[in-house]
Amino acid sequence: MDISQANDLYLEHYQFKFDPFAERSSSFQFYKAKRRSVLEQLIHFARYGNFLLLITGPRGSGKTVLRHATVAAAKETATNIVISGVQAQDAGFLMQHIAHGLRAEQPDVLGLLNAIEQVTLAGTDVHILVDDAHALNESAIVLLQRLAKGNGAARASVFLFGEPSLQTTLADIEQTNDEIEHHAIELEPWSAADIRGYLQVRLEAAGQSLDIFTETELERLCAESGGWPGLVNQAAKDLLMARIFDRPRRKTLPPLPYKYLLALLAIAFVFIYFLYQQDEQPVAVRADDVVDAPIERAMVSSQRVNEQSAAPNTQRVPLQLPMAVDNTQQAAEPVESRLTQQETMVEVAIAQAEVKPAEQAVPEPPAPVAKQTPTPAVQPKAAPAAVKQPAPAKKSAAPPVKAATQGGAWYAQQPRQRFALQVFASASEQTAKNFVQKNGQQYHYFRKQHQGKYLYVVTYGSFANHETAVAAARNLPAELRSNKPWPRTFASIVQEIN
Q1: Structure pTM?
Q2: Contacts of 6 (CB under 8 A, 6+ apart)
Q3: Which residues contact 406 (CB under 8 A, 6 or more apart)?
Q4: Total number of domains in the chain
Q5: Do 23 and 45 belong together in one domain?
Q6: What 3-state DSSP class applies to 167?
Q7: Cβ neighbours of residue 200 closer than 8 Å, sequence gap 6 or more
Q8: Is residue 256 part of a domain?
């Protein structure tokens, strides 16, 4: 997954309008905590001082944001020339950049001062703002000091934004050059309350609230960032991204020696061979059962024949009986009739085999015709009449499930300070509705608009506080926990319902 896809998933997962922790978001707001006073000092010194203004702080301390705010504060009263100290490190490159911004005829000191004077006479100040000013060499700093002094009729206000080493560089230059003057302002880190306020401003601008972080996570952000806003942005985004992409790593076991691996392979081979032999044995048994099955049935039938043969006035071998089966019944019940005929033939064959030779040598005298009863010794099983199977009863319709509806009314009835767990969001209302119908009364969903499209957000439960909601999230099914559910106040949900 490339960076753009990861950012898209990050924005969609948390339903951000834009990345709230980008260096400059699409809805940039200058957060005033411990920075408003610095901005006021810069505006004051730019108006009345003729020295270099240094704004120093470590990386991530908010120097670039403060520079943006300085430009925005004077965009209608000054001509702002922004330069990168990394790109214009010496006086030659610096003069070319400034001359281009002022449209000076000559890229030298006199030409620049004349251009500054013309702009000032037109009623506009000249502000030169240098990012990464710690990369400037001594010649560039001397040039900037000359422009800050001016020619008596006009001067430029010079702002140098850099790391703390810039102040050391200027102190060393001042020892050999008396013309260098500067005023340094060191940025201070934010307190925990300032960090919370800053995060709240950023998140609200992006369409979310501070509830996206737990108390433990907020404390962690304060500790890891040291109070510097740039590091707060980075730590906050890393934390949210980790919720989506990071998974707990499995503990790796030490590799097994080769002799143990060979032993395991041998055991596995023996086990598979044993299973193969077990699979072969039942096949032979089933074959024997098939061969012996007719004999076992014949024995049972022969016993019944012997019992019937003991009765008086019965004939032993009615060979014609299998043919006496009614053809209409055979057509009606073909399978059962065939079984009956086969069983009768087997019974007759066994009855003949069991007749002793002596009995066969002395045939019984035939009974008188008048008294003869045509009852055979072995009665064929009468084929049961074809019974019309009743049509299968139609399955009773399942009781109708109450259709899920948008939960706008339900959410509006909940106390605003309570929390719900946001489980997932879907672009399909049917998906959200089916999930709520299937999983019970604790789940609800509402509709919101995100980037011009409707989203259907499923939530779980109603909890008294943030900690209770976080604890409940740990008890959700694994497939829901994988979506990283997070607590939200009902106040923020009601604001989003569309």
Answers
A1: 0.52
A2: 241, 245
A3: 445, 446, 447
A4: 3
A5: no
A6: helix
A7: 209, 210
A8: no
